[in-house]
Amino acid sequence: MGMCLPCLGGAADDVVVTPDPETRRRQLAEAAEKRQKETAYRGVKNPDAVEKKRKKQEEIEKQAVTSSVSGGGGLKWQVG
């Protein structure tokens, strides 16, 4: 019975204190964002350049949509 006491004495040192739920939630959210970034840019040497190209393409598409709607241009029907 005396053999178990030395084992229990060191058990208090091994206890890991868990952070409060808000801190834990924030840590999990940060880890999830990091994983998403890593998987999104897997195999890409320069992720910043890819992001710039994507934003530029979105801007061009947005301009094309607004110019076609506001300009009223395009094909017109003629009945003659």
TrEMBL record:
<keyword id="KW-0564">Palmitate</keyword>
<keyword id="KW-0519">Myristate</keyword>
<dbReference type="InterPro" id="IPR055366">
    <property type="entry name" value="SVIP_metazoa"/>
</dbReference>
<dbReference type="GO" id="GO:1904240">
    <property type="term" value="P:negative regulation of VCP-NPL4-UFD1 AAA ATPase complex assembly"/>
</dbReference>
<feature type="compositionally biased region" description="Basic and acidic residues">
    <location>
        <begin position="48"/>
        <end position="62"/>
    </location>
</feature>
<dbReference type="GO" id="GO:0005789">
    <property type="term" value="C:endoplasmic reticulum membrane"/>
</dbReference>
<dbReference type="Pfam" id="PF15811">
    <property type="entry name" value="SVIP"/>
</dbReference>
<feature type="compositionally biased region" description="Gly residues">
    <location>
        <begin position="70"/>
        <end position="80"/>
    </location>
</feature>
<feature type="compositionally biased region" description="Basic and acidic residues">
    <location>
        <begin position="25"/>
        <end position="40"/>
    </location>
</feature>
<dbReference type="GO" id="GO:1904153">
    <property type="term" value="P:negative regulation of retrograde protein transport, ER to cytosol"/>
</dbReference>
<feature type="region of interest" description="Disordered">
    <location>
        <begin position="25"/>
        <end position="80"/>
    </location>
</feature>
<dbReference type="GO" id="GO:0010508">
    <property type="term" value="P:positive regulation of autophagy"/>
</dbReference>
<dbReference type="GO" id="GO:1904293">
    <property type="term" value="P:negative regulation of ERAD pathway"/>
</dbReference>
<protein>
    <submittedName>
        <fullName>Small VCP/p97-interacting protein</fullName>
    </submittedName>
</protein>
<dbReference type="InterPro" id="IPR031632">
    <property type="entry name" value="SVIP"/>
</dbReference>
<keyword id="KW-0449">Lipoprotein</keyword>
